[in-house]
Amino acid sequence: MKQYQHPTVDQISLTCVLHALSDPVRLNYVQCLAKLTSEQPCGAIPTPVAKSTMSHHLRVLREAGIIHIRTEGTQSMTSLRLHDLEEKFPGVLDSVLKAANSTTSVEEV
Amino acid sequence: MKQYQHPTVDQISLTCVLHALSDPVRLNYVQCLAKLTSEQPCGAIPTPVAKSTMSHHLRVLREAGIIHIRTEGTQSMTSLRLHDLEEKFPGVLDSVLKAANSTTSVEEV
DNA sequence: TTTAATGTTTTATGGATGTCGAACAAGGGT
DNA sequence: ACCCTTGTTCGACATCCATAAAACATTAAA
């Protein structure tokens, strides 16, 4: 049973969050996760890259404090840390997601 | 008299904006620019890097559509494209600047 | 106990990026 | 004319980063 390391709220850095969201593949994943509103295994969200690459992206998102990853059986359940991010940086994730939805459709990537 | 190239509003990309803001030096510059509320020459804002490096950073900010650069005499006047960004991605720059001010003091960098 | 499913880690690679010094360009002031 | 100020550009360098194949780990299912 793999245990994942997550930053605490006060360890979350703005530049790290922005950097994590600045990649199209990662932003699209976060966008999908927000739309689905519930915990999702990595594989449930279609991506244009290899699974090893996706594993790397999810690690970046996790270490930035944007998503939470939890093991359940063979799959990794991912969820947005909405509350934590809103507490730390009010409005940021929200406006970014709105902006993402206004320009890119989820299926494009 | 040097002429600078700026993206139009519909050419501005969210991932490019986020990437531009994800660098501490650039974010700090934007933060200062927002505080001063008026057009500023590059040199008016203190930075921890060489001027050639700063020139590169300002280019990234300009090409992302975050700042406008205009030549006046020997100096380059920089200003935030607040209106354009608000039109394209409502709330994004605003919340990011608020978040930046809540964690990093301008003088630190 | 095999076999399949789901991710992670490792290793490698090509491209982008932040950094700086030196040379250059252009204006203003003396 | 000369120099100073202010930036830009170029070349170089070290580092980071997105990508993927291959091997591995773990759990579920047959």
Automatic annotation (TrEMBL), chains A, B:
Coiled coil: none
Alphabetic keyword roster: DNA-binding, Transcription, Transcription regulation
Record carries keyword NAD: no
SUPFAM superfamilies linked: Winged helix' DNA-binding domain (SSF46785)
CDD domains: HTH_ARSR
Domain HTH arsR-type: 6-100
Protein's recorded name: Transcriptional regulator
Organism: Spirosoma telluris
